[in-house]
Amino acid sequence: MLLSNQKRLKIHGIIKRIAQDKSISLEERIYVEKFAKHNSTISLWLKKANSFRRHGLKKDDGIDNLLQSLGIDGIDKENHFNPNEDDISDWFGGAPGWLRRS
Known about the structure:
Layout: H1 5-19, H2 26-36, H3 40-55, H4 63-70, H5 88-92, H6 97-100
Helix pairs in contact: 1-3, 2-3
């Protein structure tokens, strides 16, 4: 999905406000989610913004900083895979559509 510069800037502005835990409207959230479903870059921006909002910017050199900078879930304990309780296919089932297709 190609984005015009105007749309990209609008999306980036909304995501920046999410990262800073500022108020956004439901319409803005729906707008960003619509593009995140079809664009891996926007999906990554949104995941990073949500991580920054929840945990703040990790400034140490630890694994949490690496996970956050790559936009990978794992800082929250509920996102960790537990082989005794979780089924691997269900665990990966929550991946975005663009990832499941690959």
